[in-house]
Specification:
With about 200 residues, this protein is of the alpha+beta class. It has a domain of about 120 residues: Protein of unknown function DUF192 (Jelly Rolls, Sandwich), CATH 2.60.120.1140. Helix content is about 25%, strand content about 25%. The protein has a seven-stranded mixed β-sheet. The protein has a two-stranded antiparallel ribbon with strand order 4-7. A hairpin with a 5-residue loop joins β1 and β2. The longest helix is centred in the N-terminal third of the chain and has 35 residues. The N and C termini lie far apart (about 105 Å). About 15% of the residues have low confidence.
C-alpha cells in the first residue's frame, strides 16, 4: 500500500502585535493633522472665492438711463435712473464704474418700510438718502465700497421710507440734501408708482 506523503507541517500563525497607547496616539495625531489640512485648504478656497466675489463686478451691467429728474432745494436737477422693479432694486448700482456729479439712482418702493441697503459689488463710495413723500428722512454719507475679502457695509434706517436716492459721495452735503430737505421728484408723464 502506498502511503500518501504527510502534509507539510503547519506553521503557527504570527499573532498580531498588541497595539499600545502610543500607536493609538499616533493615529489620533495623524487624523487631526489630516482634518486640519483639509479645513485650512477649504478655508483658503472660501477666502479666495470671497475676495474674488467681493472685487469682481457682476457679469453684465447695463448702462444707466436718465428715467426721471430729482430737483433739490438749491434748484439743481439730478438725472436719475429709476430702480422700480424687484430686479432693478436688487441690482442697484452694483458693478457700475462710477456716477457723474449730476447723476443718481432713485429706488421706488410700493410701500414705506425700513429698507436696508448694502454696498455689495460697489466700486465707489456713495451717499444714500431715504425719502418719505419727497422729504429726506435719513442720510448715510460716504457709504464705502467693500475692501477685498470683506463683507459689504449695510445700513437700515430708523424711519420708514418709500424711496431711496443714491448719489456720488459728497453730493448730499454739497446740494443741501440733509434730513428734512424737500425734493421734487419729476417722474415721466403717465408713470405709475410701482406696485411690487
Amino acid at each position: 500500500m502506498n502511503a500518501a506523503a504527510p502534509p507539510p507541517p503547519i506553521e503557527p500563525r504570527s499573532q498580531p502585535r498588541p497595539r499600545g497607547l502610543h500607536h493609538h496616539a499616533r493615529l489620533i495625531v495623524f487624523g487631526v493633522a489630516a482634518l486640519s489640512a483639509c479645513g485650512l485648504f477649504a478655508l483658503g478656497i472660501h477666502s479666495f472665492a470671497a475676495q474674488r466675489d467681493a472685487s469682481a463686478p457682476p457679469a453684465s451691467v447695463a448702462p444707466l438711463r436718465a428715467d426721471a429728474t430729482v430737483v433739490g432745494p438749491d434748484g439743481a436737477a439730478i438725472s436719475v435712473h429709476l430702480a422700480d422693479t424687484p430686479a432693478d432694486r436688487t441690482q442697484g448700482l452694483s458693478g457700475q464704474p462710477s456716477l457723474g456729479e449730476d447723476q443718481g439712482m432713485l429706488f421706488l418702493f410700493p410701500t414705506p418700510a425700513r429698507h436696508t441697503f448694502w454696498m455689495k459689488d460697489m466700486r465707489f463710495p456713495i451717499d444714500i438718502l431715504w425719502l418719505q413723500n419727497g422729504r429726506v428722512v435719513e442720510l448715510w454719507e460716504n457709504a464705502p465700497p467693500p475692501a477685498p475679502g470683506t463683507f459689504p457695509a449695510a445700513r437700515t434706517p430708523e424711519i420708514a421710507a418709500d424711496a431711496v436716492l443714491e448719489l456720488p459721495a459728497g453730493q448730499a452735503a454739497r446740494r443741501g440734501l440733509l434730513p428734512g430737505a424737500a425734493l421734487d421728484i419729476l417722474l415721466p408723464d403717465g408713470y405709475i408708482w410701482p406696485a411690487n
